[in-house]
Design a protein that fits this description.
With about 100 residues, this protein is mainly alpha-helical. It is built from three helices and no strands. The radius of gyration is 35 Å and the shape is rod-shaped. This is CLK4-associating serine/arginine rich protein. It comes from Hucho hucho (huchen).
Amino acid sequence: MTPQEKLKIRMQKALNRQSKADKKAAQAKVTQQENKRAEREGELRAMARKIRMKERERREKERDEWERQYGRQSHSPSPSKYGRDHSSSRRRSRSRSRSPYYRY
């Protein structure tokens, strides 16, 4: 084997080692990015859960205060409140939106 052929083989092996190392580093980087993304998603989920819990507590507190102020009443809607008047107002609002004079 000539010295030039030996050098060529040595260079090819070095190139293969470097290529392998580059692939390994790229895979490690992708894995690290995926882990960071998963961690961020977990943090966001925890924050959203905390916000929902605080919002629920706030609504419950407001409901309790309202009930203390106005007394406990039936939780079922009264027919006069959601009966004919509600549906007719809904109908009016729909017909108003179909009016030719109503434009966005």
